[in-house]
Amino acid sequence: MTVANQRALVLFSGGQDSTTCLAWALSRYEHVETIGFDYGQRHAIELSMRPQLLKKMRALSSDWSNRLSEDHMIDLSLISQLSHTAMTENIAIQMQENGLPNTFVPGRNLMFMLVAATLAYRRQLGVLVGGMCETDFSGYPDCRDDSLKALQVAINLGMASRLNIETPLMWIDKAESWRLAASLGGTALIELIREDTHTCYLGERGQMHVWGHGCGTCPACELRANGYHEFIAKS
């Protein structure tokens, strides 16, 4: 394995999936950096959770602390200028005529990966890690395995590079994601995810449910809650 392939960049939003992916990367790579995006998201509270989460991730393991390096925050507010979605505007969440929920932000994950790849190229990071999943998700086409594989080919052709895109959650459901977190960091990581991550599309932080904070009714909260209850039932 090359030196670059021991250096990873994790797309880290401050949510459940990206926190699990960060733990996964810290368990595998010698050097890990994180990148977050401010795109005018309605649930921008997740951005305010990131510094605290990174600090607490370091505290979970001295090995993880040694491996976890720089964090990068990128302004991608142009996304909110280009799109009209329930993720970027205060409108009701509903299904659209094309069969996709209006929380879908066209091109968002593709742009995230492209920007991450550009940063990774400069910083000699050979692996990009993202929390995309097509097993238990809201139907976003840019979360699909085929989309990410095609993007990896396009990025490497366009940059004359050999970046690898890793998506450890791609083929597991939310209950399995909770189990993965438990296998990586035990009860301490599960509690960190419950108490300090944010997934709710509406950005509601006030009420603490057994599975974490959130409105409890948006698609993201429902997936997280159902997965947690299944995880607990089978633990």
From TrEMBL:
Plastid listed as a keyword: no
* Residues where Zn(2+) binds: C200, C215, C218, C221
The entry's free-text remark on the cofactor is: Binds 1 zinc ion per subunit.
**In which pathway is this protein known to take part?**
Purine metabolism; 7-cyano-7-deazaguanine biosynthesis
Which cofactors are named for this entry? Zn(2+)
Any idea which positions bind ATP? F12, S13, G14, G15, Q16, D17, S18, T19, T20, C21, L22
Q: Where is the signal peptide?
A: none
Q: What is its EC number?
A: 6.3.4.20
What keywords does the record list, in alphabetical order? ATP-binding, Ligase, Metal-binding, Nucleotide-binding, Queuosine biosynthesis, Zinc
| Reaction(s) catalysed (UniProt annotation) | 7-carboxy-7-carbaguanine + NH4(+) + 2 ATP = 7-cyano-7-carbaguanine + 2 AMP + 2 diphosphate + 2 H(+)
InterPro entries cross-referenced by the UniProt entry? QueC, Rossmann-like_a/b/a_fold
Function text? Catalyzes the ATP-dependent conversion of 7-carboxy-7-deazaguanine (CDG) to 7-cyano-7-deazaguanine (preQ(0)).
Q: What protein family is recorded?
A: Belongs to the QueC family.
Q: What is this protein called?
A: 7-cyano-7-deazaguanine synthase
